[in-house]
């Protein structure tokens, strides 16, 4: 329940605007509540209904004043110093900080980056040297040297030599024949090409990039053109192949023209696709191809499709290497809805290599901001003193003087001894290494992870000072825990445990808890027999009263009849067809088994419920009563003063 209360207070990250000379909206005793805080909470919890109308603001202001009164009381009782609650908040903070760094510093930045890049298409040429991701180190090193030599030569000769060098030196022979031309691309590129994408958008027309690595190898890029993005279009097509069914090119064009003319006359595109299209994968789906973007199909096809101005427009027969296409525009993807665009981008880049690269960049940025420095010689002393026992859980870290520093982060120094303890503790990580790997390399990998962990811990510890929205979020959690605890003590526990107070409260409100008009009924259940036999028994019950009905079937070998007497709400769904006269019956229900029907016995007039019968409702109302009384007391203890001028300034 505590987590539910905190979630109600708010969980989603939203930006708290930094304000100079932030105005005080109201005070609780001597504690100020600033306008920025109120606006943040008001907008977050009201979402689309946060219209800043006088009525809406005053209603929410009253709620927030009550909230602040309770928090004030919790602090005055010292609940913010209770170790259990402090530990609980610390646990929440750790969880939030980790997800915040990923969501805010990495994910949000990457989404922003892709959204901005999607506004442009880039015409790219490249020179490529193959070195797939899992290539042996020797091959990768050789490929890196080769691309480096090409780059040095290009810098000497200039970008004008790019096309000729692509033809003779690029290992992508298809693009090499075109002087390295790949065509137009737009973000996001597929997984494994993030650095390629970065270089593509960082390079201006006519310039070349430094070598970059992708999962396929190394590239030098040249950008020829940047243009407003064409975006994505949803299309269908009808394909008439050049050489299908022994047609000549002229015959294929004649057939394509015929289909086109039928479409212009108003014939159904999907039906004609099913009849004439020679694309076996799409013809039975009305020719549907889905959404496509630049550089996905041949240039003629792309240009013809993107020239369509309106949904349901069609192209004249358009020639490609496959034959003739008649393309229908279904829709053009509209990126004006930024929330939907961001969700779409996130779905495309989830689990992409760009997350790891962006995380590494973030770590380097934090290190730079924190004045990170390290002593490589000190680390060398450590790595060369460790043997193959490092790969065993039995490994014991060497004893080092604490004064031997490995690195410094902000004002904190980390020693050889600190890292040795880290390596000793992380047994699972040490056991993951292959024993064929040189020990020095394994130690260096573990050291890099140690530095990363400490940098991330430093960044997490400083989130409040760096991000106002995280500070606001932690304030919500801190006050949410206090709210839960003080309300539990002052209201919920009292309402459920104070039996005398509950009974006295019930006496003052007993007429409120009433049974509605009810009826006493007998419910009969008939097991066994055929539907005909069951129906016959039901018809007999219609003619005879209860006792004679039971006597009739008491010894029946096929039918077993049982009944229960109960009191039900007169408007109960099961009694909707009950004849409300003495011995009146409901309709027979053959299913679900066993068959059943009801017999009317008597009417029960509305009557008060006992405390036991209404206890759940009474406790809820008693809680409301206690809370209202408590709020009135708090208002006397901690006077609330509203700055009317500040409040009026935000009313729309």
Architecture blueprint of SSEs:
Blueprint: H1 2-9, E1 24-28, E2 31-34, H2 35-46, H3 54-76, H4 83-117, E3 120-130, H5 137-157, H6 162-169, H7 173-176, E4 181-185, H8 194-202, E5 212-213, E6 217-228, E7 233-241, H9 249-264, H10 269-276, E8 288-292, H11 299-306, E9 318-319, E10 323-332, H12 338-349, H13 353-369, E11 373-374, H14 376-383, E12 405-409, E13 412-415, H15 416-425, H16 427-432, H17 439-461, H18 463-466, H19 468-497, H20 499-509, E14 514-515, E15 518-527, H21 531-543, H22 546-553, E16 560-569, E17 595-604, E18 607-608, H23 615-637, E19 640-642, H24 644-649
Antiparallel strand pairs: 1-2, 1-19, 3-4, 3-6, 5-6, 7-8, 7-10, 9-10, 11-12, 12-13, 14-18, 15-16, 15-17
Helix pairs in contact: 1-19, 3-19, 4-12, 4-13, 4-19, 19-23
Largest sheet: 4 strands, antiparallel
Distance between the termini: 36 Å
Strand order, sheet with most strands? 4-3-6-5
Amount of beta strand: 15-25%
Number of strands: 19
Rough shape?
Answer: extended
Poorly predicted runs are 1-20
Radius of gyration, in Å, reads: 38 Å
Q: In oligomeric terms, what are we looking at? A: single chain
Mean pLDDT: 90
Structural class: alpha+beta
Q: What's the total helix number?
A: 24
Helix content estimate? 40-55%
Explain what the structure shows.
- With 652 residues, this protein is α+β, with helices and mostly antiparallel strands.
- Helix content is 50%, strand content 17%.
- The protein is built from 24 helices and 19 strands.
- The strands form 6 sheets. Strands 4-3-6-5 form a 4-stranded antiparallel β-sheet. A 4-stranded antiparallel β-sheet has the order 8-7-10-9, sandwiched between helices. A 3-stranded antiparallel β-sheet has the order 2-1-19.
- A hairpin with a 2-residue loop joins strand 12 and strand 13 (412-415).
- The longest helix has 35 residues, at 83-117.
- The radius of gyration is 38 Å and the shape is extended.
């Amino acid at each position: 329940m505590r987590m539910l209360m905190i979630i109600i207070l708010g969980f989603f990250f939203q930006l708290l605007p930094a304000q100079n000379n932030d105005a005080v909206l109201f005070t609780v005793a001597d504690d100020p509540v600033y306008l920025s805080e109120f606006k943040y909470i008001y907008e977050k919890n009201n979402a689309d209904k946060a219209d800043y109308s006088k009525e809406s603001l005053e209603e929410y202001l009253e709620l927030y004043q009550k909230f602040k009164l309770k928090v004030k009381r919790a602090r005055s009782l010292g609940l913010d110093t209770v170790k259990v609650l402090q530990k609980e908040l610390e646990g929440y903070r750790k969880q939030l900080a980790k997800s915040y760094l990923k969501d805010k510093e990495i994910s949000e930045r990457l989404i922003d980056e892709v959204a901005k890049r999607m506004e442009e298409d880039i015409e790219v040429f490249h020179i490529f040297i193959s070195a797939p991701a899992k290539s042996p180190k020797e091959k990768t090193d050789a490929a890196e040297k080769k691309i480096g030599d090409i780059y040095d030569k290009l810098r000497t000769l200039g970008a004008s030599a790019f096309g000729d060098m692509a033809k003779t030196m690029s290992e992508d022979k298809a693009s090499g024949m075109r002087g390295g031309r790949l065509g137009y691309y737009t973000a996001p590129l597929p997984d494994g090409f993030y650095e390629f994408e970065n270089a593509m958008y960082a390079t201006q027309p006519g310039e070349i990039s430094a070598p970059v690595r992708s999962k396929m190898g190394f590239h030098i890029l040249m950008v020829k053109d940047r243009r407003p993005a064409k975006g994505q279009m949803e299309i269908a097509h009808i394909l008439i192949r050049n050489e299908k069914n022994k047609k000549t090119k002229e015959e294929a064009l004649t057939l394509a023209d015929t289909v086109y003319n039928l479409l212009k006359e108003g014939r159904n595109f999907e039906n004609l696709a099913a009849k004439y299209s020679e694309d076996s994968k799409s013809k039975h789906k009305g020719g549907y191809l889905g959404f496509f973007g630049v550089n996905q199909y041949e240039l003629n096809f792309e240009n013809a499709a993107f020239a369509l101005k309106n949904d349901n427009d069609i192209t004249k027969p358009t020639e490609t290497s496959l034959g003739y296409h008649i393309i229908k525009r279904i829709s053009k993807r509209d990126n004006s809805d930024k929330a939907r665009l961001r969700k779409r981008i996130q779905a495309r880049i989830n689990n992409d290599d760009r997350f790891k690269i962006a995380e590494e960049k973030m770590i380097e940025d934090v290190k730079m901001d924190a004045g990170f420095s390290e002593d490589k010689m000190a680390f060398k002393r450590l790595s060369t003193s460790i043997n193959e026992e490092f790969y065993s859980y039995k490994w014991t870290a060497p004893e080092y003087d604490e004064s031997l520093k490995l690195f410094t982060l902000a004002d904190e120094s980390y020693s050889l001894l600190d890292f040795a303890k880290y390596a000793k503790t992380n047994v699972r990580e040490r056991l993951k290494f292959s024993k064929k790997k040189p020990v020095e390399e394994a130690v260096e990998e573990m050291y890099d992870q140690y530095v990363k962990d400490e940098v991330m811990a430093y960044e997490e510890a400083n989130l409040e000072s760096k991000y106002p929205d995280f500070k606001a979020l932690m304030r919500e959690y801190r006050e949410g825990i206090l709210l839960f605890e003080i309300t539990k003590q002052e209201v919920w526990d009292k309402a459920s445990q104070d039996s005398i107070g509950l009974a006295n409260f019930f006496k003052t409100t007993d007429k409120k808890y009433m049974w509605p008009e009810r009826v006493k009924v007998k419910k009969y259940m008939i097991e066994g027999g055929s539907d005909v036999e069951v129906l016959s028994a039901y018809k007999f019950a219609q003619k005879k009263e209860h006792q004679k009905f039971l006597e009739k079937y008491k010894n029946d070998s096929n039918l077993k009849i049982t009944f229960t007497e109960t009191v039900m709400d007169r408007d109960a769904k099961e009694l909707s067809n009950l004849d409300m006269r003495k011995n009146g019956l409901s309709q027979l229900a053959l299913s679900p088994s066993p068959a059943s029907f009801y017999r009317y016995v008597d009417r029960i007039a509305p009557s008060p419920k006992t405390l036991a019968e209404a206890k759940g409702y009474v406790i809820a109302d008693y809680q409301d009563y206690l809370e209202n009384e408590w709020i009135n007391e708090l208002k006397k203890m901690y006077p609330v003063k509203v700055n009317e001028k500040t409040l009026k300034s935000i009313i729309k």
